[in-house]
Amino acid sequence: MKIRNKIVVFIFVSLLILGMETIEANGPILAQGIEEQITTNESGQYDPAISGDIIIWTDLRNGNKDIYMYNISSDTEYPVTTNESNQTNPAIYEELIVWEDHRNGNWDIYMYNLTSGIEEQITTNESTQSEPVIHGNLIVWTDYRNCPLCDIYMYNLTSESESPVAEHDQSQWSPAIYEDIIVWGDVRTFNIYMYNTTSGAEDQVTKNESIQQTPAIYEDLIVWEDHRNGNWDIYMYNITSGTENQVTTNESNQYYPAIYGDRIVWVDNRTGNNDIFMYNITSGTEHQITTNEHTQSYPSIYKNKIVWTDGRNGNIDIYMFTLGTPDEFIENLKEDIGNQEDIDDGIKTSLKAKLDAALKSISKGNDNAAVNQLNAFINSVEAQSGKAIDEDVAGDWIALARNLINDLESN
Hints:
- By secondary structure, the protein is α+β, with helices and mostly antiparallel strands.
- It contains five helices and 30 strands.
- A hairpin with a 2-residue loop joins β16 and β17.
- α2 packs antiparallel against α3, α2 packs antiparallel against α5 and α4 runs antiparallel to α5.
- The N terminus is likely disordered.
């Protein structure tokens, strides 16, 4: 586990006194985990997406729009594109990154393979292609070749063939894809539609008279922003069961949903500014991810990691929140210690014993003892830094332990 030695903030909530239902009645639960600033360049970084250990975004540091990436495991940042024209709106699936690119005088879809290092132009039509998304061997986008209408098109990387998904007498936009299901917003009825690439069947997902738009999909769950209640809410549809559910009920606006597993994230302005919120489908609980008074927007989620665009530093940066409890972070730290092949087993045993002691103290509610044990861990790591323990590895462990201490001392 690599912990980036930058700005790391822990947000933990004690549930020892108040039960879950009481907290929910008074508002959303503050999420437990680590908040981390990913980009520090003073220009703007926005439109993040995440897959695995890779975060990508649009970056303005070179005076034009480029695509950049950050590898969480190696703590390294790279430019994906260096062309002097504009590249923006990236999406990622495993080792493949796609974006819209203006180098040819119009917007085309391009792709970069992280494994091979090869960049490829996907679309060559002279009109605009935008809003690309990717899953498996399929790239999907909004296409303006039938302007003024916009349609949904796709490209199959295996067959190297391009084909329309939705071409109608009204516009379709904002596609999302998971396996063989493509979803989008559709002006025909201002509803969400879906297309099965295996069967070739198109279906209308929502049938409400108001506006439904910006869908996202994971497995058999589709989420979107919905205006049927006079404000924007998040709704969800289960393809398998055919059931629709309202996810948010707050009278303020919730929009830009994203989904992974049983977690839905979105932008929420109930606090007077835009924050990132989350809903856990399994537990039925709503969680507030960000509490900063500046604007946070455009979330993306992969497993337990959420990334977003953040304006708290006077420019736009990318931030990340890793969901987890203090126990989970200490257990992960112990696992990382065990995985270090170059460290003597005796040193590993000693370090893990100090962490075990801290875990035991936390379980008993004795935060002061846990702080002392974590300080002892830090002292031991500092003594071996640059000797038995690599300096960068030691720095990561110390940063995590110190932030755990800060949280325990603030409770």
